Amino acid sequence: MEERTEPWNIAAQLDELRAQDLWRELTPLDEVEGVIVRAGGREWVNFSSNDYLGLAGSPEMRAALEEGIAKYGGGAGASRLVCGTHRVHRELEDALADFKGTEAALTFSSGFAVALGTIPALVGPGDTIILDKLCHASLVDAARLSGATIRVFPHNHLEKLERLLGTAKGRVLVVTESIFSMDGDAALLREIVELKERHGAWLLVDEAHAVGVLGPQGRGLAAALEVDQRVDLHLGTLSKAFGLSGGYLAASRQVIDLMVNRARSFIYSTAPPFHLVHALVAILRHIRSERGDALRKAVRDNAQRTKNMLSSMGLGSPNTPAAILPVLLGEERLAISASQRLRAAGFLIPCIRYPTVARGSARLRITVNGPHSISQIDALGAALRAAV
């Protein structure tokens, strides 16, 4: 009898990942207490979380969740179009639309789900999507899923974007992040808005790393630059500065109505639990308040202190208004080693490698939160000097 071979060859694929220094594994934490995390009897200062404002474990969050559980219990039980839509979903979506200055908004189970539902619902074969090369994987995957022609312009390269707009066919959708998740720099939104208007295109802006942190009331980079009313589609997440989970699209009433009927990641997903939505309504009020302004100032101050520290060490001077500060190391092995040395010194900072970033551009990704103390940032500087 002929010996069967393994058609999937999973073991060989895993071996290849290890050989290329691209192996990843999940590392569970036992406790998370603000910017301190613990596991196996050890403790680290966490410089990897996107909980920018420190709201995830805040007293306000705990109170809102407890109130939501008491009022609504657990899961929603069905998708929004079946019987999963509750009054509190509408309350959150109305609040998000007001926050973003749009006619309407729609919430999804995650930020990834927003992209996967929105882009294929709006464009398809015969249309053109033009993406910044550094767009998040969710935006790239959604573009591929749509069947539209995909064109990519080098990061923030306005001349190339204009050339692509000039030759694009069908309905044309320009896609960018406002703050890029791995480099932390900002899109040239004013110029991109002018180009898309000149060529009659639509613009989708993913504000995942800007909402809550930048702009008046934390409304994002587009609002900070006063071009928010000229953006057609505002994507965002509820899992970073908001401290919970989910995502949203804010747009015109007609676009939102279309999403309810065509966005598959919305239609075929169970509704977000009512108690989480209740908490998000409370957290959005908190973000828009004077207390939210104070939390944003703490993020800005900590980010500036960390930038100055990195610059003084010759590790770059990130040109970013945000709290994502990459330390580029190049080779995967160098980044892995530096991350491990930092972990041994008591700091949790991830090593970011291909395919998340391009080959040869592995890095440490430092994410600064408002609750980080000056002493923790200074201690990180000392640990970095020894690690890199």
Polypeptide structure, described:
The chain is of the alpha/beta class and 388 residues long. It folds into two domains: 24-52 and 291-387, Alpha-Beta Complex (Aspartate Aminotransferase, domain 1); 59-288, Type I PLP-dependent aspartate aminotransferase-like (Major domain) (Aspartate Aminotransferase, domain 2, 3-Layer(aba) Sandwich). 43% of the residues lie in helices and 17% in strands. The chain is built from 15 helices and 14 strands. Strands 4-10-9-8-7-5-6 form a seven-stranded mixed sheet, with helices on both faces. It has a four-stranded mixed sheet with strand order 1-2-3-12. Helix 4 (87-100) packs parallel to helix 12 (274-288) and helix 13 (290-312) runs parallel beside helix 15.
- Structural class call reads alpha/beta
Distance, first to last CA: 56 Å
Q: What is the string of helix and strand elements?
A: HEEEHHHEHEHEHEHEHEEHHHHEHEEEH
Q: Please give the number of β-strands.
A: 14
What summary fits the major beta sheet? 7 strands, mixed
Strand content: 15-25%
Low-confidence parts, pLDDT < 50 over ≥5 residues?
Answer: none
CATH superfamily heading of the largest domain: Type I PLP-dependent aspartate aminotransferase-like (Major domain)
CATH class of the largest domain: Alpha Beta
Rg, rounded, reads: 22 Å
CATH-assigned fold name of the largest domain? Aspartate Aminotransferase, domain 2
Number of helices: 15
CATH architecture group name of the largest domain: 3-Layer(aba) Sandwich
